[in-house]
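Comment thread on ticket #2218

A.B. wrote:
> Attaching the input chain for the structure job we discussed in standup.
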Amino acid sequence: MKQSLGLVSLVVRDYDEALDFFIGKLSFLLVEDSPVPEQAKRWVVIAPPGAMESRLLLARASTPEQAAHIGAQTGGRVFLFLYTDNFWRDYERYQAQGIVFVREPKHEPYGTVAVFQDLYGNLWDLLEPRSRTEALA
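C.D. wrote:
> Ran it. Output below, let me know if you need it in another format.
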């Protein structure tokens, strides 16, 4: 059996401001942006560079109840974990783009990690996992 997570929905206030952040500041790639006129929405899918399976579906809030959860989908916990092959390259690039880091870089047994906020306040780990070879040393 093989399964994988294909999409994770991220509730956003506005498609275009979310795209400006994720594509313009984090260098994510636009996978799809298709209108869904019968529901007055768009199907907007983005992915980090090099991602093979998992992607984010930007889901514009369509009710006041949904809008109340923008930026707080997980009650203030880290929500998404962005793995990288070069922590310091991405950390420095994100800082230059004005990304707010709420926890400074730290070396943990599982890798190098720092926590940043997206444009809505959701918390993300930027994480370069420790290699299996390194962990065995």
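A.B. wrote:
> Thanks. Noting for the ticket: The mean pLDDT is 93.
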